[in-house]
Amino acid sequence: MSINSHKYFSEGLHEECGVFGIYGNDGLSPAYACYNGLLSLQHRGQESCGISVNDRGVISSHKNMGLVNEVFSNEILDSLKGQMAIAHVRYSTAGGSVRENSQPLVMRYVKGTLAIAHNGNLTNAYEIRRELEHRGAIFQTTIDSEVIAYLVARERVKADSVENAVERAMKQIDGAYSLLVMSPQKMIAARDPHGFRPLCMGRLGKSVVFASETCALDACGAEFIRDVEPGEIVVVDEDGIRSIKTNCPKDGKKALCVFEYIYFARTDSFIDGISVYESRKEAGRILAREFPADADIVIGVPESGIDAAIGYSEESGIPYEKGIVKNGYIGRTFIKPTQKERAKSVRLKLNPICSVIKGKRVVVIDDSIVRGTTCDRIVRMLRDAGAKEVHLRISSPPFVWPCFYGTDIPSRDELIAVKHSVEEICKLTGADTLGFFPPEKLGGLLLGKSCGICDACFSGKYPTKVPEKTLEGKERGCVNFA
User: Fold this and answer.
1) Which of 17, 200, 257, 375 is catalytic?
2) Which of 1, 22, 182, 411 has the most CB within a 10 Å radius?
3) Which tens digit of pLDDT belongs to each residue from 294-317?
4) Pairing mode, strands 256-257 and 453-454
5) Structural domain span for residue 245
6) Based on the domain organization, do 131 and 205 belong to the same domain?
7) For helices 276-290 and 306-316, what crossing angle results, to 10°?
8) How many domains does the structure of the chain reveal?
């Protein structure tokens, strides 16, 4: 049986979402700052994007399906005038891929107007949504971000400030969220108690900037200040910046998604003080020590496999070569209506450099095998290019559990490592040898820092409880909780 006989429609992990916000218009209009930030966060979401700008209490927005440079023009950006703004790029891990679900969400209620941008998934969104609906709430979207918006608005009616309302809402929600809330006078950034999703803060002149990754701060010329801590609320208004520490995990441990280092974050970003580039190179070094190969060259599958390939080369002494070229102008090729078109899409997006590959024993590094619908075509592509041997190395452990915190890891039925051993997967891919990153070595990606990570998709040990309704369609009743 070949991997192509599986019924899976897409391979690889889809990105998270990305958020960006700026308080102040010191030197660069908030809308243009957001545009530059979103361009740098485009890798985190390519389905839709939006910007909401606050002009002395009046919030105006523009959002649509598509890439950032497709949705926004100079004319649109010039029309979005104001003193602060928040922005969002989206990939749908919860809720459908339709314009109504694009962010930021803008809500008008008795206390005025709120705009919200959210990265992550709530694990108890269904229960809260049902409770709100029974109380008469009418939802305009199918995303859990609107649940947060309702809770903040409801609590704001009783609370003496927006930040207190956010704090009260955080006590009711579980799961992953890096959140930006914009009221008529304030901007508020909040990160969930475990820190599943990244969020950092910078300064651009007198303006304060928030972003999912430091690369977005760089893009708008902002200087990095620090990361927003798990369980922290940061408030920015005319009085300056202040912090509220709340709702921290009882064990005091962070649970940042380890795939930020392996795949999601951009190479030039720092996540919780750790260089993504150096972390990925270390993954390659560890792979070289754990799974050496007698080979002539090391290559990486663009883009996220390249850094690990460099590390593998440095550790093993095998020369690194650029062996595969990625066509950056091809859109997403994950979902195609027929198997023939899916197979063709790989060659449209990736193509080998035959002069580098021919007659060589090749170590090829990729970031993951999820469903197993692409890796065999990459191996075949290298063999067609004349590779004498192909040794496949993966810079993440085998996926054997679904994710409930915002990463698009499917149910266990769709994960190839659940149904097949490493030896069987190797045979299915057509590689000569196969080595996955050892799960017990994941701490090495933190480069000696004592940051906590979430590795539930590999270990099945979830940092939070996941309600039964959320487990439906994934794996009800068979997960473990740390």
Assistant:
1) 17
2) 22
3) 999 999 999 889 999 999 999 999
4) parallel
5) 18-257
6) yes
7) 50
8) 2
